[in-house]
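Let us practice reading a record.
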Amino acid sequence: MSLYKSHFTEKESDITIISESKNAINAAKQEFLTNRVVLEKYVRTHQEFQTSFSPIKVESESRIITLMAEGAQICDVGPMATVAGALADLMLKAMKTQSILNPVPAKIALVENGGEIAVDSEKPMKVALYAGENKLRLNIGFLIEKDNCPMGIASSSAKIGHAVSLGQSDVVTVFAKNATIADGAATKIGNLVKGYDIEQSIQKALEKIDDIEGVLGAFICREDKIGYAGKIPKIFHITGEKDTILHNKFAPSDSEGFEVIK
């Protein structure tokens, strides 16, 4: 089965979409553009939605707004801590739903939006995690199999990326039932990884996963220590420099590769 990969940017958003269906990829792009316009319009008149670090109540019929607010409430974070994951979830749903743009729902669907991933694939997919220049030089990958799907994957770091983290982790990666919750939970759990006692900071953060509905598991790396809890996909080790890892962060479990399309 041939697989297609499309990458594009739109303002702050950096998006990769993978599928066997070009129609599904186009449907995902349209879903993103539609919801981004809705979100931009909403935050212009509801500034607290954009600036709050805590959940807030909303009155809106727009799915992107309610999805972000619901995820923020579950994870006890501000709505914008869930934005990338929520957009990825809506794009994934468009790929898996029959529509005029997408007559046949995709069998393989993966969306990455700024590092947050929504995936529902009948074919195993490898996802690489770049953990920064940590003491362990720890860079690993996760094998996402059919039984894991649908799944959301999100990471938070105090050392890499542009998102705000109040913790001290090299990386916190969360696996959840969708990307909205994974995104918010990665922020919440990442904020807890702090303090002089590194092992204790990791353990304290991992204990939080049971309190967040929809979180399946989490993996944490801080300096020379790692920890994980819950149900996480199979792990494999990867090697290479940062640019190589990030450029090849997705791969089918076989060696077929992707045809790159616009």
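A brief commentary: The mean pLDDT is 89.
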